[in-house]
TrEMBL record:
<keyword id="KW-0964">Secreted</keyword>
<comment type="similarity">
    <text>Belongs to the plant self-incompatibility (S1) protein family.</text>
</comment>
<dbReference type="Pfam" id="PF05938">
    <property type="entry name" value="Self-incomp_S1"/>
</dbReference>
<protein>
    <recommendedName>
        <fullName>S-protein homolog</fullName>
    </recommendedName>
</protein>
<dbReference type="InterPro" id="IPR010264">
    <property type="entry name" value="Self-incomp_S1"/>
</dbReference>
<feature type="signal peptide">
    <location>
        <begin position="1"/>
        <end position="23"/>
    </location>
</feature>
<keyword id="KW-0713">Self-incompatibility</keyword>
<keyword id="KW-0732">Signal</keyword>
<dbReference type="GO" id="GO:0005576">
    <property type="term" value="C:extracellular region"/>
</dbReference>
<dbReference type="GO" id="GO:0060320">
    <property type="term" value="P:rejection of self pollen"/>
</dbReference>
Amino acid sequence: MDKYMLQLFILSTLILQITTISGKKPICFLSRRIRIYAVNQLPPNSPALLLRCQSGNHDLGYQTLYYPGQEFTFNFCINFRTLFFCHFWWSGKDLSFEVFNNLGEHRRRCDDNNLCYYEVRSDGIYFSKERPPKELKMLYGW
């Protein structure tokens, strides 16, 4: 009987976990919601920033950020193996990396405010745990 109760609990937890990938706030049951920001802080009048973010289950499609300050944001409820990565293209350069991995360092990186803020500049990608950022750390150079 205990075996069936555990299975029922796990099944009901999975059913009640409502995950929405969009700009809307998802309802997370027994998990945390993480918000990812990708912000264009490239020089004015430079080529547009193109990006594409996805996980194993969700492809958020191509996004184009045309001007400084423009952002793309999405959120999700984490589970045991949540992994999102983004690919960025700008002015003949490209860079792809994990923006969140529940099994890696990104989990701790986003813990404080349940958000990860990535700022794209002409020399690379910067990170902050806050929005607006008080302090930025360079993560990756082009």
